[in-house]
Amino acid sequence: MRVCVFGSSSLNLDAVYVDAAFELGRTLAKHGHGMVFGGYDVGLMGAVAHGVAAEGGNVIGVVTEGLNQKGRDIFPCEELICESDLATRKTRMIELADAFVTMPGGLGTFDEFFVVVSQVKAGELDAKSAILNVGGYFDPMVEMLDRACETGLNSTDWRRDCEVFNAPEPLVEWLEG
Ligand SMILES: CC(C)=CCNc1ncnc2c1ncn2[C@@H]1O[C@H](COP(=O)(O)O)[C@@H](O)[C@H]1O
């Protein structure tokens, strides 16, 4: 499988997040899976790519012209694709992936997670999404999603093809199932 991973691009992250991202990358590669991600060697994005590479896994990076101009470090990927903007990059990452993992992050990470699960909801995409809930980071979001379903404001069960995990090993096994 090729797994698309979303996660924070921030610098100066708590080690608990960085360590979990590295471990996720190692676990994906140990199970024989490749990864596609946002391409930069920063934050949790970079940490997961280093984890995949540490176990000899394949990494595809999709960067953008705009972010390149900001001088961000690019991870040494086996394959590097450059798109014009974030929306095109997101479409390309989704096309290249068989499954998705969302790690803790900020606006960009939320955007990517919600695009994928709403495409699944609309029937445009058939793929599993896993959330790596490091330190309970996503608890408020999970509560909000449950509330959206309980009130009927979200018309489908958001957990269909989407699951929350505290550790990478069961997460990867679920993606494989
Ligand atoms: C000036 C500055 C900090 C620009 C950073 N901007 C970005 N850098 C790298 N990846 C990004 C950026 N914006 C969105 N993304 C995408 O969204 C996630 C990171 O966004 P964030 O840090 O959670 O929100 C990554 O999965 C990546 O694919």
From TrEMBL:
UniProt KW keywords: Cytokinin biosynthesis, Hydrolase
Any GO CC annotation of this UniProt entry: cytosol
Superkingdom, natural source: Bacteria
GO MF term set: cytokinin riboside 5'-monophosphate phosphoribohydrolase activity
Top-level EC class: hydrolase
Gene3D superfamilies: 3.40.50.450
InterPro entries in the cross-refs: LOG (IPR005269), LOG_fam (IPR031100)
Swiss-Prot/TrEMBL catalytic activity: 9-ribosyl-trans-zeatin 5'-phosphate + H2O = trans-zeatin + D-ribose 5-phosphate; N(6)-(dimethylallyl)adenosine 5'-phosphate + H2O = N(6)-dimethylallyladenine + D-ribose 5-phosphate
EC number: 3.2.2.n1
Protein's UniProt keywords contain Hydrolase: yes
One annotated GO biological process: cytokinin biosynthetic process
Recorded family membership: Belongs to the LOG family.
Name by which UniProt lists this protein: Cytokinin riboside 5'-monophosphate phosphoribohydrolase
